[in-house]
Amino acid sequence: MKRKPLTAALALGMSLAAAAHANEGMWMPTQLPELANTLKQAGFKGDPKELADVTAPPLSAVVRVGGGTGSFVSDEGLLLTNHHVAYGVIQYNASKEHNYIDDGFIAQGRDDERAANPDYRVLVTVGFDKVTDDVLKDAQGKTGRAYYDAVESARKRIVADCEAEGGVRCSVANMYYGSDFYRIRQLELTDIRLVYAPPRAIGNYGDEIDNFMWPRHTGDFTLLRAYVGKDGKPAPYSKDNVPYHPPAHLKMSLDGPKEGDYAMLAGYPGITYRLRTANEFANQIDTVLPRRVDVFQQLIDVIEAQGKTSADARTRYASQLQSLKNNRKRAAGELEGLLRSDAKTQRAQDEQAMLANADGKYKADIDALFASLAAGEQAGASEFLLSTLTSQTQLLRSAMLIERLRIESAKPDAERESGYQQRDHALIEGVLKQVQRRYDPATEKALVTALIQRYQQLPDGQRDRGYDEVFGRTPQQLSQRLDALYAGTGLGEEQARLSRFAAARQGQSVAADPLMQAAATLVLAQLASEAKSKEREGEQLRLRPSYMQALFAWRGKQGRAVYPDANSTLRISYGKVEALHPRDAVSYSPVTTVAGIVEKNTDAVPFDAPKPLLAAIAKGDFGSTADPALNTQTVNFLTNLDTTGGNSGSPVLNAKGELIGLNFDSNWESVSASWWFDPRYKRAVHVDMRYLRWLLAKVYPAPALLQEMGVPAE
Questions:
Q1: Which of 220, 565, 642, 688 is catalytic?
Q2: Which of these is catalytic: 84, 217, 249, 686?
Q3: C-beta separation of 653 from 640 below 8 A
Q4: Active site residue 627
Q5: How far apart are CA 22 and CA 17, in angstroms?
Q6: pTM score of the predicted model
Q7: pLDDT (tens digit, 9 = 90+) per residue, 143-180?
Q8: Separation of alpha carbons 470 and 291, rounded Å
Q9: How far apart are CA 16 and CA 559, in angstroms?
């Protein structure tokens, strides 16, 4: 069936934006001019048209950093993001001799700034263009895998043409589930350096006890700096590189937020699922989230057990452990929140009403979509365990990366799988290089054991015999084979990995190794699984736009705004500083102060506030950063801004577009917002920039950095 353009539906959604909660929505910048009246009513003092261009201030100062967001805060490439977003950089530079995790780090001048791990990236968006017709023109009339391949081929061609000019990394983003596509151009900055990191007991004060909780008292920030070659172009690390001069940088406000103030956030939220089907909601609640909680908790237990007997393992897996804890707690909170909001029932009722009102021409496509999704659910357990196996290992992941690269490199570059093209070689090499500081044999074997023992328990139809061949069918066989693999492999040495990488990138055979031999079998299984997945994905890519059309029409009848699910592209959220009332007779102020740090302090992890911080609080010298109404130093604050994973490190701006906060968390009651937005509970948690300024001025001084950011060093 011929696809109907979404223009009318989108316009309807925009015209109805005022009918939605002002704080709901992760808007594409290009949509903001249509929201001008709503923005002004909310308190925005600027011109919404200036927010439509991602290549112009202020949005050109907002960048992707690692797995989150950051923003430039000086014209010398100084970059502000979260402590937890930069945690891998801190861990990478930590050692037995220099415990930068616990002690923090302050560079003593530019020459003392420390290089990030080789696979760490900062992406500066320099272009955003609609390419829907170009992406879909060769897919018309095709189904399944043929549809998938046509879209993928078009995406690769568009990316290759975009990158032919050099100096940029391009991608094609899918909006509204196959209905619209946008070409995104980004500078890929690879020389990133650590400038300032507070001690763990500031940057992660409260750790998992306080994670996703309010009130918070956490200085979750780190300062990095981006460097480029002397020609101003992105370049690998070199002592001869110079600071990057960004197209814009944010001005830090000297005034802080107060309840009711307008607030706006710009960032790169990861993925939301609010436009998914009712059955997908049900599967998430009944199956996916309980599985994630269980598996992540087991992996956390494995790493913590290994760390008890090995300080080296504890340091090497610190970043990975932190990520697992965050993901586990997020999954648990998401499940609890969806149950609290009764999202499954509400979404089912909403979909039933939508289908009852839908144009009959969409019925066949929607029925076919539901059948395809049901088939995919059957493969969910296996796919989750095997994807986790590669993401949570170092040597096994390296072996599979090299083997897959070897296979893909035998093809013409345009036909290679995304992630294994020539444009991806530098990133793969960076992944292989960072292994050395993040690998412990005993810990990796324990992680593999935990995951494969679960895999061994799956029904025969959900397992691949390739994994059974490598790891065996029983725990005893698994233990014996892992011992043999890891005792015999040489991939623990960087040169052994890089020499095989050099051969693989040429499509040549690599030197023999037990782990490489195992990877050859596992990658074949991976390819077979991907083939089935692509068949399903192709059908869903073809069919979902009909579901979207029905949903747009239904939302229009309801008088509700429609915005695209997040997909790691630049988005804007707006709202205000707002208190939280999560339960009967429970109310929380939207601002916390240093008094809470002292109240929580136990002198034991995770509430072991550093002595210099406690002394500074006791002294009460807060200078220009004190809140005039509270007459003390603020720490964190709440807004009702719409955020999700990936928004970590997003700058929070006031009505004039000035930097007032740094997003780093959500409250427990709103973790489920990636699926279901509930305005009663959705809050975002931010570091007050006055707390950052005070720490740099009075506690762990860095006056040169304050001067560089254009704020008082007092």
A1: 220
A2: 84
A3: no
A4: no
A5: 8
A6: 0.89
A7: 999 999 999 999 999 999 999 988 899 999 999 999 99
A8: 24
A9: 6
